[in-house]
Here is the input.
Amino acid sequence: MIRRALLTLLAVVGVAMAVLAPAGPAHAQTVSAGQAIDQLQDVRSSIDHTLALIKAGRADEAFAAARDGYLQHFELVEVPLRAIDNDLTIRTEGKFAEIRQSIRDGDSVATVRDSLIQLRGLIDDCERKLSTIGPGAAALVTGQSFIIIFREGFEVVLLVSILLGYLEAARSTHFIKPIMVGIGLAAVATALTVVALRLLFDVLPFSIEVVEAITALVAVAVLIYVSFWLVARLEQKRWMEFVRARLWRAVSLGSAASLVLVGFTAVYREGFETALFYQSLLSFGAGLGRYVLLGLVLGVLALAVVAWAIFRLGRRLPIRQFMNVAVVLIMATSVAFLGNAVHALQTADVVGYRQLDWPRPPIFVSQATGYWPTAQTVFAQLALTTVYVLGALYTFVIRPWSLRRHAKVAPAPGGAVT
Here is the structure.
């Protein structure tokens, strides 16, 4: 009886203490999603500070920074986050605890660093869960996906129309079937390339952030090349002449295998570029996959209309006008890819991380634009934008002016200067 009374008394005291206890982070029941997102930015700062301290050999201070990042900031995030994704909350809590224990045990800098990099990724996941995508990010990603598939597909439609037109003009329509087989194989190879890239990323001995950054940088290099309409135009002309010459040789030989190869090579180059671009788009589009798919579907439908107009109606399309518009959109996409690539390298602690005291957009907008307010990402995007602006000035202003000037001073046939 006395024991039961004591237990009851202890229970009452416990409840009273819980009710009267001052509200701390763990009791912050009224934290909104927006406030939680603000706290996540403070968590990121604590992660950066912890990493700097552990690299400097100041383990005690690093432990204190990691502890404060959790107790003072992430605990405020837990309440709204737990209601949305309890599993993610538990995994993030566990990673905080793992880092503190790793520092306490005196683990190597590399071990603690890897855990902090993983925590950065979890914090991004937490923000995505607490954020709404919004029309801006959705429209941007849908547009990027659309322009990638439509521009690359448009090149394929032009090539195929040239191939089929040549065969019809040469009265060799019986060779159309092997050409179409090669085109079909190129489409299958493109799909397999997408899968192969994902499998390759899983086995490479680098962190996923580094691999994604490298892929994006390769994609940016390709996009820079195709962005300057003059270079792209000359390259397109050379490529089409090369394909036409190979087709002529294959028709002369009457080799079905050669014709299949012509159809394959004509299309797969564009297919490989498409696979590379979409790999980058998906790598940095976490949570935006359905809008990538939407842009892909809309682009394919638009291509079907264009192909029907060319092959069935024989209409001439405003190719140059489309290319001019596509170039601007491709440039903007490459700037976004570059910003995301630099950010991925920062997350992996490969590139420095100097935070700017600038407004930070919602995470989905950052993913769509590649804008992350750090000195490194902003400088990289400004540098690439400057390259594009200077290239446009040369292509559309300086070069035409130079050509006109030389035309005026060129000697006439009779020796006079015009």
In short: The chain has a mean pLDDT of 83. Residues 151 and 322 are 9 Å apart (CA to CA). The chain has two domains: 25-130, 134-398.
